[in-house]
């Protein structure tokens, strides 16, 4: 039997997989998601969300996809690893994943690929009145040539709206790349930087995931003192919070305990330090651009 079933859960509460049903919408995540959806509805073109490692960008992208799936007027594709050898490979990938025709575009020229995409965007966006959306996770991996391709695609528009909506989610190093391309930066309609959670949000996130996993007992599994330790050692980064909570619940079963207290978290952190696997970093400062 899985450890989480022994405690009384229906599902694992602290999986690190980006399940949108377990995604805790902090104030910042909700603000980012709401603004992205507004930008998409208005077809304004380009939204960029930055965040340090572990701030929930990938989970945010999955939540966005979950919301778009129920909307019949959206056509979307997500790129999880935007490393492309050259412009032709990038465009051919878009054509393939948007299922534009059945021809082999591997030997097509850059102009042919652009024209195929433009025709597709016009057909779907104008004639069929669909919102074509491209979501790119790990966008800091985009090369300068790929960013240039995206800039060109953003030029495809009617007198009223952009034919392609683009959402970039990337680590903070994407910022410097974008700042070095002024005519790309100028096209960003919505810019946002995600920051770590505060203490109250850390507590809410833990309780939310416990409820989502089916925990119904009246007893609090995580004492406030434990949450304070988790917040201190995770610095409010959702991924670190998730990992610490997973280890705490596993220890609960292994050591036949009933609650997670401060001492439990200290033991986990001390063991990580002794084994050389503990990283202590400065939290990302709140910023915008």
Keywords:
single chain; 289 residues; alpha/beta; 2 domains; 5-stranded parallel β-sheet; 5 strands; elongated; disordered C terminus; P-loop_NTPase; ExeA_AAA_ATPase_DNA-bind
Would you mind describing this structure in some detail?
The protein is of the alpha/beta class. The chain has 12 helices and 5 strands. The protein has a 5-stranded parallel sheet. Helix 6 links the parallel strand 3 (131-136) and strand 4. Helix 10 (224-234) packs across helix 11. InterPro entries: AAA_22, ExeA_AAA_ATPase_DNA-bind, P-loop_NTPase. One of its GO terms (molecular function) is ATP hydrolysis activity. This is Transposase. Pfam families: AAA_22.
Give me the count of strands.
5
Mean pLDDT: 92
CATH architecture of the largest domain: 3-Layer(aba) Sandwich
Q: Any idea of the CATH topology of the largest domain?
A: Rossmann fold
Low-confidence stretches: 282-287
Sheet bearing the most strands, described? 5 strands, parallel
Tell me the name of the CATH class of the largest domain: Alpha Beta
The CATH superfamily name of the largest domain is P-loop containing nucleotide triphosphate hydrolases
Write a brief caption for the model:
This protein has about 290 residues and is α/β, with parallel strands linked by helices. Helices cover about 50% and strands about 10% of the residues.
Draw up the topology in text:
Blueprint: H1 3-7, H2 27-42, E1 46-51, H3 57-69, E2 74-79, H4 87-97, H5 110-127, E3 131-136, H6 144-153, E4 164-170, H7 173-179, H8 182-185, E5 188-194, H9 199-212, H10 224-234, H11 238-254, H12 262-275
Parallel strand pairs: 1-4, 1-5, 2-3, 3-4
Helix pairs in contact: 4-5, 9-10, 10-11, 10-12
